[in-house]
Amino acid sequence: MEFRIDRRNGVPAFQQIVQQTKQALRLGVLVPGDRLPTAKVVAEVSAVNPNTTLKAYRELEREGLVEPRPGQGTFVRRTLARPSAGTDSPLYGELVAWMSRAAGAGLEQEDVAALVASAMEKQYATGTATAATTTGSTGE
Amino acid sequence: MHAGEPALEAHGLGMRHRRGWALRDCSFRLPAGRICGLVGPNGAGKTTLLSIAAQVLEPTRGTLSLFGAAPGAADPGRTAFLAQEQPLFRGFTVAETLRLGRELNPRWDQRAAEDVVRAGDVPLDAKVGTLSGGQRTRVALALALGKRPDLLLLDEPMANLDPVARKELMGTLLGEAAERGTTVLMSTHVLAELEDLCDYLVVLSGGEVRLAGDVDELLSVHTVVTGAKEGEGLPASLAHHPLVESRFSGRQFTALIRPDGPVTGPGEADDPGLEELLLAYLRSPEAPPLITPTAQVRAQDQAYDTRTVAA
């Protein structure tokens, strides 16, 4: 696993590492028992401050997703992948069909994004932080 | 990791050059294991501060202590200084340059130094004078890292480097810092890159410390408020918050404040970016300086001052 730290998108490197790890956990790129790259490796490959990487790992640890093992590194504890959230799930199929109807009705990509965001807001507004991270706007 | 133990502490540091004061009454603390950016306009005193920390210059006033040792008594082997002009012998080969490092430094680590050179594909038998700017910086960095320093002082290490070389060298530097917990203090003009590289900051302007502290902490105590102007100046609701900078463009106002309680009234409040925060402080010399608690020198540490005065 390698983090892609984009220095131009305004999201702090710390949040990019948290988000990309969670994304990897959702997609099954990382599974329980896997070791996250060490702060030294992230520093060398992506020129990220090691304290930033460690801070991101502490945040993931606080959420119960990873655990540090002294002298060995940081390991994945649990996955975020859900059977019903994969791209082969019925839910995904319904979404693809809906997108196709939206495009047929003449909606542009931005119109669709606005509708999805609005519906998501309505459904998950009182929900937990998970809702915020899926929209990509972490409210930290 | 390092429970806030100080790597460097400056107490009322002052330095007078022929043309006036390069540093005035600088007091701050840099905890060990941090990677600290030293920022400020040209002539702000960055190089002077680094030279004092490297024990190359003696301060006119005040003291600077390293790793809790009495001022001036720190083991010079624990500190490495990479000066801006990177003084290397142009007629030496890379291997001879490293050999010089080995002869001069009792804690020398030949393999660490060679690893840094090899990672950049710099031939060991090449003469330093024939190397590119990036390669020369890499050799200078190898010389500094081969010393196995606990405190690494870098003066504009990224100047004159192309983006690829810059990222590679910073990767090498940060990797070393990660492995050994090295404290880094580096001056730079590249504000945009600070956010990922540094977790600590010292901002100098006109020879004085304007900001010092943990980056997250510095950001979290500031708020940017933007909104539509009502009448002249900023809305009255912002008047009681300490103001760093205010700007007006047409009917819009932008104010960078250090909120003293909840921000109410018209306008939208947002967290500032690091670059935005630094620029605001550098543009507003009259804004009150801010040294966060971890960067403050403790009162009892002033004992050094009394001792030197008494002696």
From TrEMBL, chain B:
GO terms for molecular function: ATP binding; ATP hydrolysis activity. Residues 8-231 form the ABC transporter domain. The keyword Ribonucleoprotein does not apply. SMART domains: AAA (SM00382). InterPro entries: AAA+_ATPase (IPR003593), ABC_transporter-like_ATP-bd (IPR003439), ABC_transporter-like_CS (IPR017871), ABC_Transporter_VariousFunc (IPR051782), P-loop_NTPase (IPR027417). The keyword Nucleotide-binding applies. Keywords: ATP-binding, Nucleotide-binding, Transport. SUPFAM superfamilies: P-loop containing nucleoside triphosphate hydrolases (SSF52540). It comes from the Bacteria. PROSITE patterns: ABC_TRANSPORTER_1 (PS00211), ABC_TRANSPORTER_2 (PS50893). Transmembrane segments: none annotated. PANTHER family: ABC TRANSPORTER ATP-BINDING PROTEIN ALBC-RELATED. This is ABC transporter ATP-binding protein. It comes from Streptomyces apricus.
